[in-house]
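ok, trying the design again with the full structure, not the truncated one.
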């Protein structure tokens, strides 16, 4: 499918997901192309009028005090713009470390195209169309992930921008090429960077925003799966479901509480837990009693991060912004990603609390004194069961909590201390992604352990949703009888949670739009 940028079509997380992971293409609407051209024409009008424009007629960063178009006789020479704009991405392609995945690069390009479509960048239409062609033809620049401090993702976007300048490397149809060789091989027409093209390609937080969209899609799938795992843990523990009563949110209207409790109750509906005397005891450990409350907090943090990300997907973060309708070249700080970074910090902290509760629920299911089931959930006396799995649970939880720790607000100033603050948005999004990777294994373990506990519980009537979830687990993983390695079982379930809707068994708690 092709997503038309413009004509009132807002970009959502789902839009980016379709482009990045499913190979959808993008196109500019006619009105968007007109807006891009108008902005570029206005740029040259202001240059001809002698206006000083950051990054065009002046240097960048600490070099803002340097006029770059002025000749020795004091005249302005716009013919220098090609060389200047060609050098901007080359000089900023300084990223290091792990390369972004194919889908991450596609998400970055899609996010930058969305920003360009706002018509404030001053980019030339041929260069904007060339970036669009990279995406649609499946040419994926090699982008190292370390280098951005979140005040425009200069380094990662420069690795994309330098490809349009005929430099750097790209992946195409599974092979790695220098862009110079690839453009010749497939007759890809490279644009002539001029005006503000080089700066427009790199001066954006599109790398952070594109990756944020992918992380949110992963979080939604994982938490939808985990809601099923929580329901199955309730079944296995024979937990008291009174904390899921609709009255809970009526007497304390915490945001998201009503939706979360209703979602969990829906999974348990028609089971014995919903009947009088269904629970084993009057009050359970807090990891069960507070499960819905913590999950509601995750839901609210997710919604805030989704709103921050979709705001960026449908905004212009160019500095300076070219506004022909206002006859204005606007210096601004729209490149600052603090709000995005803070929303992901909150999401990471919420997920860490979820992980803490998850680990404790699993431990309680394995405890004979807490659950009334055989210790470590082995049916045979003297065997290990899931005992050593507790070490993996502990290690995963520690890793999750580590990646939930907020990034310091203190940063090393750069650009001769002109750039003396940084949001670290990309680093925050990246660490949240690593947190989700570990949480996925923890959720898989809860599914594995809860299913085993249900089996050992004997003849019990599960809820409509939890019946489906239990069966899907058993379609992939056999019950633990004699001691065996659980590693392959955990991996199988972790991969299953990445499949949309595999474990929701009903309505989804989190939506990506």
């Amino acid at each position: 499918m092709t997503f038309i940028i413009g004509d009132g079509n807002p970009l959502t997380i789902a839009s980016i997901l379709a482009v990045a992971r499913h190979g959808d293409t993008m196109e500019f609407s006619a009105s968007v192309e007109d807006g891009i051209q108008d902005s570029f024409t206005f740029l040259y009008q202001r240059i001809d009028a002698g206006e000083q424009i950051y990054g065009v007629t002046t240097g960048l960063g600490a070099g803002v005090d340097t006029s770059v178009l002025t000749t020795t006789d004091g005249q302005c020479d716009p013919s220098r713009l090609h060389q200047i704009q060609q050098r901007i991405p080359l000089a900023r392609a300084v990223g290091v470390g792990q390369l972004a995945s194919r889908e991450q690069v596609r998400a970055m390009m899609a996010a930058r195209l969305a920003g360009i479509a706002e018509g404030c960048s001053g980019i030339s239409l041929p260069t904007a169309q060339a970036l669009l062609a990279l995406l649609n033809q499946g040419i994926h620049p090699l982008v190292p992930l370390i280098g951005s401090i979140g005040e425009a993702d200069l380094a990662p976007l420069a690795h994309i921008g330098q490809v349009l300048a005929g430099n750097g490397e790209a992946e195409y149809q599974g092979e790695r090429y220098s862009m110079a060789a690839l453009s010749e091989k497939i007759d890809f027409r490279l644009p002539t960077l001029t005006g503000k093209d080089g700066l427009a390609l790199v001066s954006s937080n599109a790398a952070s925003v594109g990756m944020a969209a992918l992380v949110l899609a992963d979080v939604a799938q994982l938490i939808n799966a985990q809601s099923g795992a929580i329901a199955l843990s309730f079944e296995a523990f024979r937990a008291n479901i009174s904390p899921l009563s609709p009255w809970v949110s009526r007497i304390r209207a915490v945001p998201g509480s009503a939706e979360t409790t209703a979602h969990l109750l829906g999974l348990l509906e028609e089971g014995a837990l919903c009947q009088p005397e269904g629970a084993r005891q009057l009050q359970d450990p807090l990891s069960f009693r507070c499960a819905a409350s913590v999950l509601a907090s995750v839901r609210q943090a997710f919604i805030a991060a989704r709103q921050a990300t979709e705001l960026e997907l449908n905004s212009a973060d160019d500095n300076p912004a070219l506004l022909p309708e206002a006859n204005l070249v606007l210096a601004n700080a729209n490149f600052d990603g603090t709000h995005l970074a803070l929303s992901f910090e909150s999401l990471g902290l919420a997920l860490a609390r979820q992980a803490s509760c998850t680990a404790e629920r699993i431990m309680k299911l394995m405890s004979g004194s807490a659950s009334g089931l055989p210790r470590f959930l082995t049916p045979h006396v003297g065997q290990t069961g899931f005992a050593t799995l507790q070490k993996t649970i502990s290690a995963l939880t520690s890793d999750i909590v580590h990646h939930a720790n907020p990034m310091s607000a203190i940063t090393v100033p750069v650009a001769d201390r002109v750039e003396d603050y940084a949001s670290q948005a990309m680093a925050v999004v990246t660490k949240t992604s690593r947190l989700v990777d570990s949480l996925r294994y923890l959720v898989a373990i809860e599914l594995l352990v809860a299913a085993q506990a249900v089996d050992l519980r004997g003849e019990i009537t599960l809820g409509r949703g939890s019946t489906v979830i239990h069966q899907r687990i058993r379609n992939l993983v056999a019950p633990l009888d004699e001691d065996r390695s659980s590693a392959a079982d955990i991996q199988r379930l972790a991969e299953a949670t990445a499949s949309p809707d595999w474990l929701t068994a009903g309505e989804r708690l989190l939506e990506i739009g």
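Keeping the full-length input from now on. The chain has 19 helices and nine strands.
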